[in-house]
From TrEMBL, chains A, B:
Transmembrane segments: none annotated. Belongs to the TRAPP small subunits family. BET3 subfamily. The keyword Iron-sulfur does not apply. GO terms for biological process: Golgi vesicle transport; macroautophagy. Keywords: Endoplasmic reticulum, ER-Golgi transport, Golgi apparatus, Transport. It holds the Pfam family TRAPP. The keyword Endoplasmic reticulum applies. This is Trafficking protein particle complex subunit. It comes from the Eukaryota. Homodimer. It is found in: Endoplasmic reticulum; Golgi apparatus, cis-Golgi network. One of its GO terms (cellular component) is endoplasmic reticulum.
């Protein structure tokens, strides 16, 4: 698999976020744009993921969350996430990201409290899961850049069409 | 050295370019913005380059161009470039990039003839060299995305202050 240096990615991502802040002048709008960009990226990345990970079909949402955390993050960002905080129904969980390559060397000024700097990742997960027929909500609920003690993304399954499962190309 | 998957970088870069096109609606302005963003990135990357490459001080511009092509591109983008087309004075040369990870799976529509899609790279080189006291011009003169037969960046040394050489931290 082709790789590149993480720092040029981190800095390029930083440029993009700065550009969006300059464009929209509204933190909520920037969060939305990042999510939207991530969504398109996720729709593309899922193909590489399925091809390269040679992963078995996901049994359910619980299984999908584990694969994102352990295989997906490793494949694309070279880090892993922990999956915690399941609700009783198995439809909600949190991904805890200890290391976030997007945010290396980043500090946010006070006026950017509310910026979901790494919101692209939520979009990526949403876009990728939609391609395998799981509709999810994904939101950063804790972010080290905002002074929190961890990076936590909350994942919530809205619907999944098991009748169109397995993946399209199988 | 930390690495990440090249595809997520390529797609993120693509999102950024699309955003700039939507913002500026003018290809020349997009080229300028990409160069400007690259410039800041280059100013940051030079530190990692000097630290990690453990490269000897560059004797002159010729040497610097070779290091960019063979060590820099390898370190950050995991590709190398060929250095060709030197002028007699040794102040101008071309970098030929066979593989351009920024432009993988990219096709430009006709109305974007004139877009220097990978212009970020020119900015990076300009920014990095300025930090070691070489002022250069760097421009894409051929681009496979524009139908050319190669990716060629033309480098031109404008001034270099040998008196402030070697690198600051030596």
């Amino acid at each position: 698999m082709e790789t590149i240096n993480a720092e040029i990615f981190t800095l390029t991502y930083g440029s993009m976020v700065r550009q969006l802040i300059a464009d929209y002048e509204d933190v909520e709008e920037v969060n939305k744009q990042l999510d939207k960009m991530g969504y398109s990226i996720g729709q593309r990345l899922i193909d590489e993921f399925l091809a390269k990970s040679k992963t078995q079909r996901c049994a359910d949402f619980r299984d999908a969350a584990e694969k994102i955390a352990k295989v997906g993050f490793r494949m694309f960002l070279n880090v892993t996430a922990a999956v915690t905080g399941w609700n009783a129904e198995g439809t909600e969980c949190s991904l805890i990201l200890e290391d976030n390559p997007l945010a290396d060397f980043v500090e946010l000024p006070e006026q950017l409290a509310g910026l979901k700097y790494s919101n692209l990742l939520c979009g990526v997960i949403r876009g990728a899961l939609e391609m395998v027929n799981m509709e999810v909500e994904c939101t950063f609920v804790r972010d080290v850049l905002q002074g929190d003690d961890a990076n936590e993304m909350r994942l919530k399954l809205l619907s999944s069409s098991t009748e169109t499962y397995p993946f399209k190309d199988e």
